[in-house]
Amino acid sequence: MKLVKVVIRQCETLRALDADEYLGTRIGYCPSKIEHIVVSGRRIHIFRKNCEDCVLAKLMKTTHVIGLPVIRKDETIHFIVRETRRAMKILKEHEQDILKMEEVDYREVYLTLRQKEALRLLANGEASNISRLARKLGISKPAALKLVKNSIRKLASRYS
Fold first, then answer.
1. 87 exposure class (CB count in 10 Å sphere: 0-12, 13-18, 19+)
2. In the predicted model, what is the mean pLDDT of the chain?
3. Is the pTM of this model over 0.85?
C-alpha cells in the first residue's frame, strides 16, 4: 500500500478561527458539510461548512485520509492519504492548493501487532516499566525499549 504525505494551506475559514489546536474533522449529517473541531483560546469550536471546493473535505468524504489532519502554526494542514487513482485525481485537480507532497512507506505509519500490544500493556498499566514489559513480551530489555521507541516514533510522525 502506497501512502502520500500532503501539506496544504489552511482555508480562509480556518485561519479566521485562529485555532490553537486541531482536534479532528468529520463529515456532518449532510454529506456536503464538513465539521472542523478546533480549540481556540480555552474553547472548543465545531465549525460546519459547505466545503465542496476543499481538497481535504473531498479526500475525507472518499475515506482516503489516514489518521487525523494536523494544523500547524504556519497555517498549513498536514495529512496522510492512501495513494489510489481516485485520491490522486482529487489531488491533481487541487494542485494549486498543495504546498508539498511526498511518498511515505506504510511501514513508517502503521503500527505492527507487536507494537500495538506493547503500547497497550504500557497504557493499561499491565507493564509499568520497560523491564516488566520485556518480561510480559518474553524479550530482552533493549528489544523492549527499541519496540516502544519505534512505536512512539511512528505515532509522532503520523501526528506531527
1. buried
2. 82
3. no
